[in-house]
Amino acid sequence: MTDVDVRADGEGVYLVAVSAEAGADALAEPGEPGAGDRRVRLLLPEELLERLDLRAADGPVLARAAADVLVEDGTWRGLADEVSLAELDRERPGFLERVRELSGR
Asked: How far apart are CA 41 and CA 37, in angstroms?
């Protein structure tokens, strides 16, 4: 089972930790317990939220759903250390639709 932890790291920025074991902790530094197999900074630009007709308050739910989609399709392994949802939307047709479906937003 893959474990995912998503934590806010500033306005519109989320840390996502992915671990093959339980106990992922997005705030853990590499080498610390819970650091997992991968940590990514996920950016939610304000213009993307506006385009989706969402508010900043929807950001945490959207970030969690995006992390779940990236784990679901296995693409989290190939991500850069920092990635924008807008960039993922451009590169992956249907990505945001799946994120919105999971998030209910």
From this structure: 14
Q: Is the pTM of this model over 0.85?
A: yes
Q: At 75, phi and psi to the nearest 5?
A: -80, -5
86 torsion bin: left (phi>0), alpha (psi -120 to 50), beta (else)? alpha
**CA torsion angle for 76, 17, 59, 100 (degrees, to 10)?**
40
- Residues 11-47 have pLDDT tens digits of 899 999 999 888 999 999 888 988 989 999 999 999 9
Helix 95-103 vs helix 59-72: angle between axes, to the nearest 10 degrees? 120
